[in-house]
TrEMBL record:
This is Diguanylate cyclase (GGDEF)-like protein. Residues 24-279 form the EAL domain. It comes from Roseibium marinum. Coiled coil: none annotated. The lineage of its organism: Bacteria, Pseudomonadati, Pseudomonadota, Alphaproteobacteria, Hyphomicrobiales.
Length: 293
């Protein structure tokens, strides 16, 4: 037994795992401090209707500034926040900041459509989640349809179908928009997608990448757009990086798209300028001018 435990200890403390555990502990400590002192920022990525280049929404994406690295990408700390439960605090912070910003934009007469917030499975499952959403909306006097909650297929992984349905319908009753994010990238919920009260489907970037240069990819992309459409959902394509990919989202009548071609996520105060810059880069469009008048 002594030998076994010595072996186990040896395996547990073998360098890579040990390093990983230490990094995670460090990130957790630093993230906790960052949350406490309000260091986390939100950036907003425009969602554009490719038929007329119009702004239809803004997705809030969390940013963690770092002296040495500029910003630490969420992909490096969201999984740790999820593992440690810190995501609950982080999620609450993001939701509040996004509602506050949306209310300020509305006050300023900026027509941004909707603001979209990512919700992690743990946050979604919290019994108090729906009431928190309700409270935020009323605290900032934000009309419910101006808030869109993005969920990934991961919410279906550890949560029973009935529970998912119950939470979703509670949120639907509040009147917020519900979006299924990264569609096609994970666990497939195709079998009961038609029973879930989503209004929006976001097609994972993997399906759009190079689809303008590869017929098979284009056909797959088109099929997924068609699937969303046939379910009556607003279809948003993620990750158009080139003019060709952008044109493809228009050709297949996506309701919206977001991607570096139009704009990356930027600080709230830079959003309007970025959209103007995008419009200036586009051929003049009578339909867009119409909206402005
Ligand atoms: P997501 O919700 O699917 O967000 C879209 C991600 O794609 C963002 O990465 C965005 O910057 C990136 N992106 C947008 N356009 C393009 C493009 O044209 N090309 C490429 N290559 N990428 C593009 P980001 O900000 O690094 O966020 C990554 C993920 O982290 C998000 O994926 C989301 O799952 C998660 N995340 C970010 N903020 C939050 C948050 O506040 N709460 C939660 N729970 N998750 C968040
Ligand atoms: Mg998202
Ligand atoms: Mg996504
Ligand atoms: Mg994603």
């Amino acid at each position: 037994a002594a030998k076994e435990s010595k072996n186990a200890r040896h395996i547990f403390f073998s360098a890579p795992l040990n390093e990983r555990v230490q990094t995670e502990m460090l990130v957790e400590t630093l993230l906790r401090a960052a949350l406490k002192t309000g260091q986390l920022e939100l950036h907003y990525q425009p969602q554009i209707c490719p038929a007329d280049d119009r702004l239809i929404g803004l997705e809030a994406l969390v940013r963690w500034p770092n002296e040495k690295r500029g910003y630490i990408p969420p992909g490096e700390f969201i999984p740790i926040a999820e593992k440690t439960g810190l995501i609950l605090e982080l999620g609450q912070y993001v939701l509040e900041r996004a509602c506050k910003q949306a209310a300020a934009w509305r006050q300023a007469g900026f027509d941004f459509g909707q603001v979209s917030v990512n919700v992690s499975p743990l946050q979604f499952r919290q019994p108090s989640f729906a009431s928190t959403v309700r409270q935020m909306l009323s605290a900032y006097r934000l009309p419910a349809p101006m808030l869109c909650l993005e969920l990934t297929e991961n919410v279906f992984v550890d949560t029973g179908e009935q529970m998912v349905l119950d939470i979703l319908s509670e949120l639907q009753n509040i009147g917020v928009q519900l979006s299924l994010d990264d569609f096609g990238s994970g666990y497939s919920s195709l079998s009961y997608l038609h029973r879930l009260p989503f209004q929006e489907l976001k097609i994972d970037r993997a399906f759009l990448a190079d689809a303008d240069r590869d017929l098979q990819k284009e056909q797959l992309f088109q099929a997924i757009v068609g699937l969303g459409r046939s379910l009556g959902l607003r279809v948003i394509a993620e990750g158009a990086e080139t003019a060709g990919e952008y044109a493809l989202t228009a050709a297949h009548h996506c309701d919206g798209m977001q991607g570096f071609f139009c704009s990356p996520a930027v600080a709230a105060q830079d959003v309007r300028a970025r959209i103007e810059a995008f419009h200036k880069s586009r051929p003049a469009r009578s339909d867009r001018m119409e909206k402005k008048r």
